[in-house]
Amino acid sequence: MPSPILPKKLYSIQATPYGGRGAFASTSVEQDTHILACAGPYASVILRKFRKEACAWCFSYAFESGKNSWNVRVDGAGAWFCKEDCKGEWLVDEQHSGIRVAVNTALDKTLRRKKQKGQENEDSEVPPQLGFLDTLISEGATSEIIEKAWTLAEQVYAKVGPEETSTDAAALNGAQSYPPRVSTGTWTDMLNLQLNEETLIHKQPAMLTTHIRVYGFLRQVIANLPLYMTSAAVRALLGRDHGNVFGIWDNGAEENEMLGWGMYVFGSYFNHDCSPNLVKTRSGRAMNFTTTGPVSHGQELCISYVDVGENTTASERCHELRKEWFLSCLCSRCKGELEANA
């Protein structure tokens, strides 16, 4: 697998005038210039309802090949593949494939057990010590409350023994035996992304309970958790998930079926603009970012996070961005449209 194409001469990561960081052109570039090519996501997930239809490695959609599902699989991993080659790549590349197999096996058993009890649509109960989260509202979702909840979660789940579905981490297939492929990023690269935990929980307080449930589930299904699977690690990943991942769409087009999510670490630095000068395209696992026109030295390189077609209005785009991305659009297109309609 080739190293990532990170053309530092073409752009650099800098602080933006409106907060946060962004990618800015280090030189003038022409239309159709390949700014970034990500060989694959640092982490990805195929939505459960599509896991038999979407290849876990190259994301090929079975229906596009005239099939209802793929037949190649890794037993117990919850992963299906379009061909044996993709299965082989996944097994070699998946640093934590053993843990993924264990977690998915435990999840399947848990869901089957809940279904037998008629509880498949019910969330798992939160321990009584964390009952106050059931009534948490945005105004109360402060950093102090978040820290309190996680401190209690660590105490509660440290005392919880593994369920019958648990797996001994010592037998998890050599979880760290393979080095990361640098073209997809490393744990450190992921940690350099913006942390959105507090913003997300303030907007959607129920997400704090969801994140803690994930941690509790891992504590219960994997005995002798590896040192790197701590509450801090779970928070670090889930807190950067929102706002830093890209949808995985069938045929690569966003008006089609969304099959899952992928964290393309280096592509996450491209901010939104309703008149983007970059377009992203997916080819298999790879995500490429290409200029849509000439870009001047010092100009910010942006993609679009929502539908920015000619028939969309500024109010529609701004509403979608606030709802899904928790940001207010300050682009020149929206400003011009809003001023013209004022």
Task: Give an overview of the whole structure.
The chain has helices at residues 84-93, 97-116, 143-158, 187-191, 197-203, 206-221, 231-241, 314-325, 332-340; strands spanning 11-15, 21-25, 34-38, 43-46, 72-74, 79-81, 167-168, 222-223, 246-249, 258-263, 271-272, 278-283, 286-291, 300-303. Helix 8 (314-325) crosses helix 9 (332-340). It is globular, with a radius of gyration of 22 Å. By secondary structure, it is an alpha+beta fold. Mean pLDDT is 84; it is low at 1-7 and 164-182. Helices cover 31% and strands 17% of the residues. The strands form five sheets. The chain has a four-stranded mixed beta sheet with strand order 1-2-14-11, with no helix packed on it. Strands 3-13-12 form a three-stranded antiparallel beta sheet, with no helix packed on it. The protein contains nine helices and 14 strands.
Helix content: 25-40%
Name the structural class. Answer: alpha+beta
- Write down how many β-strands occur, each being a DSSP E stretch of 2 or more residues: 14
Shape: globular
Mean pLDDT value:
84
Low-confidence spans: 1-7, 164-182
Order of helices and strands: EEEEEEHHHEHHHEHEEEEEEHH
Salient structural properties:
single chain, 9 helices, 14 strands, four-stranded mixed β-sheet, alpha+beta, 342 residues, three-stranded antiparallel β-sheet
Compact description:
With 342 residues, this protein is an alpha+beta fold.
Topology:
Elements: E1 11-15, E2 21-25, E3 34-38, E4 43-46, E5 72-74, E6 79-81, H1 84-93, H2 97-116, H3 143-158, E7 167-168, H4 187-191, H5 197-203, H6 206-221, E8 222-223, H7 231-241, E9 246-249, E10 258-263, E11 271-272, E12 278-283, E13 286-291, E14 300-303, H8 314-325, H9 332-340
Parallel strand pairs: 7-8, 11-14
Antiparallel strand pairs: 1-2, 2-14, 3-13, 4-10, 5-6, 9-10, 12-13
